[in-house]
Amino acid sequence: MSTEIDDLIDELRSEAAMDRPSVETPDVGIIMGSDSDLDTMAGAYEALSELGLDEDTGEGAESRFSYESYVVSAHRTPDLMYAYAETARERGLSVIIAGAGGKSADLPNMTASIAFPVPVIGVPVQEKSVDSVIGMPTGAPIVAVDAGKSFNAGLSAAQILAGDHEELADRLVDYHEELESEVGAVSRELHEQGIEVFREDP
Ligand SMILES: Nc1c(C(=O)O)ncn1[C@@H]1O[C@H](COP(=O)(O)O)[C@@H](O)[C@H]1O
């Protein structure tokens, strides 16, 4: 195993042993099979940022709730995947968002099996990855979004956290109201301008 992977695994294991209070640890883990997935996975980070979560890059985060990000691959770095999933709960993660592409997108489902009972939200990076992400046997659950819908994965992660944190539930309600009023404004414009004018200058 490479030194880089060894070091990452050691860090994860020592963080797990620290037994830090939950205010000091990231709440959401965002992992992806390759950094080439970043454009697709950016939605998860956008949704979480919009809800006020900061990224914890190892130095702690200013906000009460935070997320972290790693590249982890079931196929290329199986030991790192194992260590990440196995230590997730002890490291304080409440939910993991895992994205992977290709026809053999195993990172989300393998992570879900190992990290259980920490819930995993799978993001198939491409349409062809959907079946391998969601196809889990009974007793080995994964939650998943449609191909590329990482923004929804971020919202779902926040929904899971909101069960224990009223503050986050309120932020989700505000987000939803904003979304509704945006659609309402578009609806009024379409109605009042008519289809032809609206299409020329939406
Ligand atoms: N599906 C997986 C896994 C895995 O499931 O373990 N590891 C990498 N990959 C995927 O391979 C694609 C190509 O990766 P590269 O661009 O690095 O060649 C990516 O979409 C990644 O998620």
From TrEMBL:
> What biological process terms from GO does the record include?
'de novo' IMP biosynthetic process
In terms of superkingdom, the source organism counts as Archaea
Keywords tagged on the record = Isomerase, Purine biosynthesis
Q: What is the lineage of its organism?
A: Archaea, Methanobacteriati, Methanobacteriota, Stenosarchaea group, Halobacteria
- What HAMAP family does UniProt report for this protein, alphabetically? PurE_classI
Q: Cytoplasm among the record's keywords?
A: no
Q: Which gene encodes it?
A: purE
What the entry lists under PANTHER family is as follows: PHOSPHORIBOSYLAMINOIMIDAZOLE CARBOXYLASE, PHOSPHORIBOSYLAMINOIMIDAZOLE CARBOXYLASE CATALYTIC SUBUNIT
Quote the InterPro entries the UniProt record gives: PurE_ClassI (IPR033747), PurE_dom (IPR000031), PurE_prokaryotes (IPR024694)
Per the entry, what this protein does is: Catalyzes the conversion of N5-carboxyaminoimidazole ribonucleotide (N5-CAIR) to 4-carboxy-5-aminoimidazole ribonucleotide (CAIR).
Question: Hey, which family's this protein in?
Answer: Belongs to the AIR carboxylase family. Class I subfamily.
**Pathway(s) served:** Purine metabolism; IMP biosynthesis via de novo pathway; 5-amino-1-(5-phospho-D-ribosyl)imidazole-4-carboxylate from 5-amino-1-(5-phospho-D-ribosyl)imidazole (N5-CAIR route): step 2/2
* EC number of the protein: 5.4.99.18
Q: Does the keyword Isomerase apply?
A: yes
Q: Which residues bind substrate?
A: S34, D37, R76
Q: What is this protein called?
A: N5-carboxyaminoimidazole ribonucleotide mutase
Q: What is the uppermost EC class here?
A: isomerase
Catalytic activity as recorded in UniProt: 5-carboxyamino-1-(5-phospho-D-ribosyl)imidazole + H(+) = 5-amino-1-(5-phospho-D-ribosyl)imidazole-4-carboxylate
- Please list every transmembrane segment annotated in the UniProt record, as residue ranges: none
Instruction: Indicate the segments forming the PurE domain, all copies.
Output: 26-183
Q: Mention any Pfam family matching this sequence.
A: AIRC
Name one molecular function that GO assigns to this entry. Answer: 5-(carboxyamino)imidazole ribonucleotide mutase activity
